[in-house]
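User: I'll paste a sequence; please echo it back and then give the predicted structure.

Assistant: Echoing your sequence first, then the prediction.
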Amino acid sequence: FDMKTTATAKGQIVIPASLRRRFGIKGGTRLQIEVDEKTQRIVLKPITREYIYSLCGKYRGKGLLKALMAEKEHEKEL
């Protein structure tokens, strides 16, 4: 499907109501932003309870805490 939206001067965008309902996005829902430089795509993933449950055990033993801490340090540098 193809939907369009426009960014405001502050860079904010509106996610159409039909998509918000479909993916359980409500006021205050956090979104994960993934960037694919190769294809020039920005992917938004809602961080809902269902999303978090789907990750349970997925990253066990992968050093996720270290990766998260490194990412936070990188964000501070920006």
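The chain is about 35% helix and 20% strand. The first strand starts at residue 30 and ends at 36.
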